[in-house]
Write a structure and sequence with these properties.
This protein is of the alpha+beta class. It has 3 helices and 16 strands.
Length: 374
């Protein structure tokens, strides 16, 4: 081969592998571009799925309910009744880590409207905002921080088929109002506090009935607002001590009727140590005005003590003594003895015996119930 052919042949020999490498690089680049397009589509699909699922993830649903059977001997005769007393749904939503909404919607006695015995009630509907790590602002429809059961009354959390009569007639649970308030805590000291400004009671001057004075934030007369404060101590495991104070400068919402300012003081203890439990509560109203004094209803108070024992983690026994005074000469008492059985921590079967004196209605007998929460 002549020399003038050797150089072109050498260059061709070198070019062939280089061309092959270029083709391989082009193929790889195309594959990478296809894989990148696939990954981009997957990322976009994931982002869309997260965005659509986020509101659901931030929304919570819960509830509770209870069915009661009461068999009581009364002055008017034997009374037997069965009642789906409450069906309640909770709805909550987190707008952000620091801003939330809470609500509670209740149907009482299964059927409402017309002449039916039930009611549909909105017991909670408020916005809650963290101002600091230890301070919270609440505004809307709120349960007042008084007593043991007013804020926590799901059936698996307490003994007895019916809620105790002291917190029913004196406090009066369940008691909610529209208003705004602050809550704070000092975790290291086991202290927490609440302070609220809210709508108040509107009692009838003819009866001065505390329970009858609840307006339930339904076109409530807000001529005279009320203020409630609570201090609570929980530093010792299993122990809660709390005291609440409420003041309203006119509990009838009108002047000149002889029913004026009112102050509520309540304090309670809730203690659990191993299988032993103890609850005790005292509450007292002091009501100003000539009409309240004339009716003998200027001092209304009540107290109860309850002991309990967990035979097993799922079976508990309890005994409770209740006494309450709503007018001069009216000294009502009720005793209860019974058991709770929890087949699941959120489901409870209840049974108790009940004895009342004449001032309490003289209704003796037994109660059966089932309750749940979720």
């Amino acid at each position: 081969m002549t020399d003038h052919w050797r150089l072109p042949l050498s260059l061709l020999t070198l070019a062939l592998p280089v061309a092959g490498l270029a083709d391989d690089a082009a193929d790889r680049l195309q594959r990478l571009e296809r894989e990148l397009d696939t990954l981009r589509a997957q990322v976009e699909a994931t982002a869309d799925a997260v965005a659509s699922a986020a509101p659901a993830d931030r929304t919570r649903v819960g509830g509770y309910g209870e069915l009661h059977y009461n068999h009581l001997d009364t002055p008017s005769g034997d009374r037997r009744s069965l009642d789906f007393h409450r069906f309640v749904l909770f709805f909550g939503h987190d707008f952000s880590d620091a801003l939330r909404f809470q609500s509670e919607l209740e149907v009482e006695h299964a059927v409402s409207g017309g002449d039916e015995p039930g009611e549909v009630e909105l017991e909670q509907a408020y916005v809650e905002m963290d101002l600091t790590d230890s301070t919270v602002l609440r505004a809307g429809l709120v349960l007042l921080p008084v007593g043991i059961l007013n804020e926590t009354h799901e059936p698996p959390t307490f003994y007895g088929v019916e809620r105790n009569p002291v917190e029913k007639h004196i406090l009066p649970a369940t008691w909610w109002e529209g208003g705004v308030g602050l809550s704070g805590r000092q975790a290291a000291r086991g202290l927490s506090w609440d302070l609220l400004l809210h709508s108040g009671l509107k009692v009838d001057p003819a009866t001065v009935s505390i329970r009858g004075g609840r307006q339930k934030a339904a076109k409530a007369d807000a001529s005279k607002l009320a203020a409630t404060g609570r201090l609570r101590y929980t530093a010792i495991p299993g122990l809660e001590l709390a005291a609440s104070l409420q003041w309203q400068d006119d509990i009838s919402q009108q002047t000149g009727d002889g029913v004026d300012g009112a102050t509520l003081l309540s304090t309670h203890l809730a203690w659990r140590h191993g299988p032993l439990g103890l609850r005790a509560l005292y509450a007292r109203w002091d009501i100003d005005g000539a009409q309240a004094r004339a009716l003998g209803r200027d001092r209304q108070w009540g107290a109860y003590a309850e002991g309990s024992y967990r035979v097993t983690p799922r079976l508990g026994l309890f005994a409770r003594h209740n006494t309450w005074h709503t007018a001069d000469g009216v000294d009502a008492t009720q005793q209860n003895l019974g058991l709770n059985w929890w087949p699941h921590e959120d489901v409870v079967f209840k049974a108790d015996l009940q004895w009342q004196n004449a001032d309490a209605g003289d209704a003796d007998g037994f109660n059966l119930g089932i309750g749940y929460q979720f």
